[in-house]
Amino acid sequence: TKQIPEIKMIDSTFNVVTEGYNFVGKRMAQLETDVFEARILGKKMIVMTGRDAAELFYDESRIKREGAMPKRIQKTLFGVNGIHTKDGQKHKIRKAMFMSMMTEERLAHLRTILQEEWKRKGLEMEQKKRAVLFDESEELILRAMCRWTGVPLTDAESWRRAYEVGVMIDAAGGVGKRYREGEKVRTETEGWIQEVIEAVRDGRMKAEEGTPVHTVAFHEEEGELLDAHMAAIELLNVIRPAVAVARFVAFAALALHDFPEWKDKLSTTKELNNFANEVRRFYPFTPFLPAVVKEDFEWKGYLFKEGRHVILDVHGINRDPLIWEEPETFNPDRFNDFVDDRFNFIPQGGGDPDTGHRCPGEQIAVMIIEESVRYLNENLSYDVPEQDLTINMVRMPTLPKDRFIMDNISVKEN
Ligand code: HEM
Predict the structure, then answer these.
(1) SS3 293
(2) Who's near 127: CB < 8 A, 6+ residues apart?
(3) Cβ–ligand 1 contact at 348 (below 6 Å)
(4) Strand partners, 405
């Protein structure tokens, strides 16, 4: 077998932290490779990029999740020992719970909710005249998701809760204070949702069948309900990542601002969908994903040893010139003739969401972007005042610096 190109440093964690989204691509270019080995967070890891690497990453006979996700990311972003960390049959049963929420009917209901919430938000923003789109979107999405999942949320608490969920998401790539803040708000937010689960279970709160609150509260594994805390973690695994879509909403607004020629090409369902997908491809979000080699195997002449950690370069695959023509150009039309093979467009993971770890929330994410772009483009008039809209590629997750400030906001009469 061939030797996997190696970064000759005792530990590269510092470079990951200081280079962020650029770390992997830079090393791949320097070493002229699509696989390399480095020591990160004290562990030897194989970092890999490209479509074929994605296919390997999702091959469950060779790659597993147990032991892969750093505890610090579980304690902030995902919740400890939730679905992200499970393998095999345990994972499939848990995953079916998530997928059962995504029926056509339930998703159509979410679209209606999003349209109603944008109407309300438009009026609120008109009153304020000036607003920060990212913050407004987090609050709007939290409201929409609480309605959709069946979690009660009062007007008095929606901003605070949205802020706290936002901190959890932001803490994932953080160290020091940013990390500790994330851990703290996760504990609080889990407590809030756990109380809802317990109230639904003992009948103090009514939950309609088919709502995610009901689904999670009464989901059984081997004849038993989930521990109430685990149920809270998993229900939060629906609400939290949806709130994270506010990043894509801010990026979508930035795209409308930077590439205004697309504003007139958003009238059909297909055009709106292409735009949402290009936002998911073009702007940085998920940097990479971790897993572990299940047993020894050889791939492209390289030996992957049992227990070795592997990292899939999600961000790089979104910009891979072997997959995308002119990857650095924002071009929604590229999706008109794009052939998706489940491993070549993976901003939310690859493979099959029913059986593997691919994100179950892609339709929700796309829908939130679509409805936001539709509203911003068709129903709202606003100025984009002088501000810092640069995207810091070192920070993970990232965002336009000033979170997209809008001014002179008014609802269009149409
Ligand atoms: C998994 C990204 C929105 C729920 C994932 C994964 C990624 C991802 C990269 C990991 C795939 C893997 O481990 O192989 C995103 C992004 C989103 C988003 C960038 C938008 C900002 C959503 C939404 C939901 C959701 C709206 C709501 C249902 C989940 C769950 C998993 C997951 C439950 C774990 C799946 C599993 O381990 O089987 N997501 N996601 N995500 N996502 Fe999302």
Answers:
(1) strand
(2) none
(3) yes
(4) 132
13-411 in CATH: which number?
1.10.630.10
The DSSP string of 66-131 is TTTS-HHHIIIII-TTSGGG--HHHHHHHHHHHHTT--HHHHHHHHHHHHHHHHHHHHHHHHHSSE
Tokens of 211: 């709502």
pLDDT digits (tens, 9 = 90+) for 128-185: 999 999 999 999 999 999 999 999 999 999 999 999 999 999 988 777 888 999 999 9
Nearest-CA neighbor of 334 among 405, 265, 397? 265
Strand 289-293 and strand 309-312: the pairing is: antiparallel
Cα 361 to ligand 1 centre (Å): 6
Strands 43-48 and 309-312, bridge-based pairing: parallel
Q: Given CA atoms 25, 27, 29, 32 in this order, what sign does their dihedral have?
A: negative
CB 65 within 8 Å of CB 291: yes
Question: What is the SS3 assignment for 369?
Answer: helix
Q: Which two tokens stand for residue 56?
A: 């390997």
Nearest Cα to Cα of residue 244 among 347, 98, 337, 338: 347
ipTM over 0.90: yes
Number of other CB atoms surrounding residue 44 within 10 Å: 13
- Residue pair 182/170 in contact (Cβ under 8 Å)? The answer is yes
Q: For residues 362 and 359, give the distance between their C-alpha atoms in angstroms, rounded to a whole number.
A: 6
Query: Which of 348, 354, 367 to mutate for ligand 1's pocket (most ligand atoms within 8 Å of CB)?
Result: 348
